[in-house]
Amino acid sequence: MAGSAAGAQEYFGFQSPTGNIHCMVFSGYGDDGDGVRCDIGNYTPSALPAPEGCDYDWGNAFWIGSVDRRGGLACISDAISDPGNPVLGYGESVSGGGVTCTSAKSGMTCENSAGHGFTLSKAKQRVF
């Protein structure tokens, strides 16, 4: 993202080496819009039932913003997966939107500067 204008709205995606987790980084949208969303394809659900009023997909999309709030699940009607996105190799990290995501054989972890975020793997998903 070098050479971009300050305050410009940008987003970029990446995926886990297995292709099971796809993430999108959003920056330049302000405190309520900057952050990372990751979707997981194959997984053993470990989320609570969908909240009342969620008429879309629940349990496979996670969001962490750049501010001090905890990570959480998103009620979604779209998908961010793109097999053309670059792979974030095991042991590698990428930062953007006030969040850093790290790929590991045990899963993908995305965390903001306050230490909040989520960890996703096929076996378990956790927000913190």
Overview features:
single chain, 128 residues, mainly beta, five-stranded antiparallel β-sheet, 10 strands, 38% strand, globular, disordered N terminus
Describe the structure concisely for a colleague.
The protein is mainly β and 128 residues long.
How would you portray this structure in words?
It is a single chain. The protein is mostly beta strands and 128 residues long. The chain contains no helices and ten strands. A five-stranded antiparallel sheet has the order 1-2-3-4-5, with no helix packed on it. The N and C termini lie far apart (28 Å).
Question: How many separate domains?
Answer: 1
Average predicted confidence as pLDDT: 91
Rg measurement, Å: 14 Å
Total number of β-strand segments?
10
Largest sheet: 5 strands, antiparallel
